[in-house]
Amino acid sequence: MSAAKLVRLADRGVVSVTGKDSEKLLQGLVTNDIEGLAQGEARHAALLSPQGKILFDFFVVRHGDGFLLDVLRASTGDLVKRLSMYKLRADVIITDISESFRIEAAWGDGTTSFQRNSAMHFSDPRHSLLGVRHLIDARSADDSATGFELRDYDALRVSLGVPEGGRDYNFGDAYPHEADFDLLNGVSFSKGCYVGQEIVARMQNKTVVRKRAVKISGASSLTSNDDVLIGDVAIGRVGTVDGRDAIAMLRLDRALEAQEKNQTLTAGGVAITVDHIALENYRASAAARSSAALPSS
Q1: Are the C-beta atoms of 278 and 214 separated by less than 8 Å?
Q2: Alpha-carbon gap, residue 286 to 253, rounded angstroms
Q3: Fewer CB within 10 A of the end CB, N or C, for the chain?
Q4: Which keywords does this chain's UniProt record carry (predicted)?
């Protein structure tokens, strides 16, 4: 582990969902199971379209008689409107309270030294090395406590291959499997129905997921939003970048085919390689589906 780091996530906001029906409402809407969530415990989850695509991703945190949603700040207003569409007569109050909180991420050895009495904190449920997130009362926030920048946190995400909505996949365009929710504890396959659940279940049980957000590495520095190419054919796009490493939304079937034919992938004129574990997992998944489809003798 590295020395402890603390970064303010200024692009994150908070939506409050309170009232006696708050758990029932969210449980019937989001991809993860939040029933029985303990105080201060969090789930990584998404709200999908009926077609199964991610509209919003967030952390759901139990707080008092309801929940706090740690969500992209630019999306808080739209999330409030979307949740309110499903509220109907439920005893629920949905509010954007972003001005009342500041969100930070801490990781590395000694992160407990950053915890404040005024802060809620929870372990990032996506990956143990992503550390702890703090939801701090904005009135008591201490700007002097942060010593690092958002790019340090992005570098951590890239090293772990953890994508972020709006940067590594587009809202309204990606399925949970494509955004690695199945690999990063973002979806429950055992809970009851939720919006888009049938599509997610079908992808889990019957489909080879050909496109995913995966880690790539370049021969030199990469640039966000460049297309990933085989020759002049685009098979993906670069998202978050940390020097030569990046996360890209990529057609794994095409990338594997290129590898087997010794064809070079490029992005912005830079030769790239794809995380070998992602390619091998795709190969294994495709082989398993192909075997299952064969008629029994």
Answers
A1: yes
A2: 9
A3: C
A4: Transit peptide
- What Rg, from alpha-carbon coordinates, does the chain have? 20
Looking at residue 297, its pLDDT comes to 35
How far is 97 from 64, CA to CA, in rounded Å? 15
What is the pLDDT averaged over residues 10-38? 96
Question: What does the alpha-carbon distance between residue 211 and residue 57 come to, in Å, rounded to a whole number?
Answer: 19
Per DSSP, helices labelled H in the chain are 22-27, 76-87, 150-160, 197-206, 252-260, 276-293
Local structure of 288: helix, strand or coil? helix
Amino acid at 170: N
- In angstroms, rounded to a whole number, what is the distance separating the alpha carbons of residues 199 and 196? 6
pLDDT in tens, 201-241: 999 998 899 999 999 999 999 999 999 999 999 999 999 99
In the predicted structure, residue 7 carries a pLDDT above the cut 50: yes
Give the C-alpha separation, 66 to 63, whole Å: 5
The CA distance from 275 to 214, in Å, is 7
Can you tell me whether residue 224 is helix, strand or coil? coil
- Is 13 a residue whose pLDDT tops 70? yes
CA distance 222 to 267: 7
Domains delineated in the chain: 6-160 (3.30.70.1400), 210-293 (2.40.30)
Q: Vertex 242, ends 256 and 210: CA angle to 5°?
A: 25
Measure the CA–CA gap between 109 and 36, rounded to whole angstroms: 30
How far is the C-alpha of 120 from the C-alpha of 246, rounded, in Å? 31
